[in-house]
Amino acid sequence: MLSRILSQSAVALLWLLHFLPLPILAVMGQGLGLLLFHLAGRRRKIALVNLSLCFPELGDQERNNLAKAHFKMLGRSILERSILWWGSRERMYRLIQVVGEEKMHALRAAGRPIIMLAPHFVGLDAGGIGIALRFDSLTIYSAQKNPVFDRVVLRGRSRIGDQLMLSRQEGARATVKAMKSGRPFYYLPDMDFGSRDSVFVPFFGVQAATITGLSRLSRAARAAVVPCVTRMLPGGKGYVVEIGDPWPDFPTADVEADTRRMNAFIENVVRTMPEQYYWVHRRFKTRPEGEGRFY
User: Fold this and answer.
1) Is residue 14 a contact partner of residue 149, using CB atoms and an 8 Å limit?
2) Residue spans of alpha helices (H) in 135-212
3) CA angle at residue 231 from 108 to 217, to 5 degrees?
């Protein structure tokens, strides 16, 4: 009961925050991030381990500063979700720019199913809303452990446009069917989901268990793969969603090579804004046989 009351209070506070201007929310979010950096010791440790693996050329102080910058962005993303979940359509159109949407229109006009490769940057929720504002889209939803937050997150992500939310349990067949019906798939494949349906390919030079879904789904649906990267802008200026050109020669007959290509692409984008990648996830949790754990 106490947990439920605290969760409902947190949601109520978040709802109140959506009335604030974004620049004020951004400053508050950075403050929350700094607080989390000092209080969330386990997540701070995970981030620092990830950064030591991915940026071994940096010194300890540089990695600590990068982790702190990441937590500030993470804090912003938490508070700014209040706008994404309760803000008006008009406000979100102003705050979320989409660059390159004409590429999506061209593919749809040609009858091509589309997979939007959306790496785990802190602005990914804004990216999903930006796409849903403009297209009847598709995404995968993972249930939250807290039932109060689960209802809020599900409603917040699905309230804009005609966005189809599928669970992971519904499988590839439902996903392919929805893509073939014309829904672009906002796909986030760069997390460690264990060894099932995964291969070990490099990510920043470290073998990372990576799901092969991008290659397999692209082949099954005959879908074009389009990069979709969301950047959080400084000074509370909002977000920009960058839609790239469709990947040529993808997929190939080599699923592992396709998955390696995906990780290399994500790595290159991460280097352009390392503070915005989701470093608090245990990206290297699953290890090849015989290797010790990092976390």
Assistant:
1) no
2) 147-158, 171-180
3) 40
What are the counts of helices (DSSP H) followed by strands (DSSP E) for the chain? 11, 9
Q: Residue 198 in 3-state DSSP? A: strand
pTM of the model: 0.93
Write out the two tokens for 162. 């005609």
* Separation CA 92–CA 77 (nearest Å): 14
For the chain, list the domains and their CATH numbers.
Answer: 2-276 (3.40.1130)
Q: Is the peptide bond before 251 cis (omega within 30 degrees of 0)?
A: yes
Sequential DSSP letters for 266-291: HHHHHTTSGGGB-TTS-TT-S--TTP
- Bridge partner list, 46: none
| Residue pLDDT, tens place only, 227-279 | 999 999 998 899 999 999 999 999 999 999 999 999 999 999 999 999 999 99
Average pLDDT in the chain: 93
